[in-house]
Write a structure and sequence with these properties.
By secondary structure, the chain is mostly helical. It has eight helices and no strands. The N and C termini lie far apart (67 Å).
């Protein structure tokens, strides 16, 4: 597979899982599928396919990274594909945690849907938004003191 083909495959393998979390959050199959850590496997496979052609250079640079070396590895079609596959897999992993945690904390799906979309687009912002929503929800549900 070419770097472009792998790049183009990375997001579509993650889409079904995002769709379940955003569009069908309460469906019993969503909880079963997203609840399994195996749901990340398709994205990991794409990542491993992306890293395979440049693994020796990538591993060597990661063992002793410097700015110029990292740029040299990443500033290639194979490097860009590797970074993209990494981002897609990591964003999905973060989204999975947010989905599971939000269900446990009873965060409303209409609150979670835009946060999960934001996570797809700009995961650090989505994660920050979820942490704020989580904190606000926890403060609203504080138990009253006994006595």
């Amino acid at each position: 597979m070419s770097a472009v083909e792998v790049f183009n495959l990375a997001f579509p393998v993650a889409v079904p899982f995002w769709a379940l979390m955003i569009l069908l959050p309460g469906w019993s199959w969503t909880k079963r599928i997203i609840g399994s850590p195996l749901m990340i496997v398709p994205s990991l496979i794409v990542y491993f396919i992306a890293v395979a052609p440049i693994f020796p250079e990538f591993a060597r640079e990661m063992l002793n990274p410097d700015h110029a070396g990292v740029v040299g590895v990443i500033a290639t079609p194979a490097g860009i594909t590797l970074v993209w596959a990494h981002l897609i897999a990591f964003d999905l992993f973060i989204g999975r945690w947010m989905y599971l945690d939000s269900r446990e904390r009873r965060v409303h799906p209409l609150v979670m849907a835009p946060i999960l979309v934001l996570t797809i687009l700009l995961s650090p912002f989505g994660l920050a938004a979820y942490l704020v929503a989580r904190w606000v929800g926890a403060r609203q549900r504080k138990p009253e003191p006994v006595g």
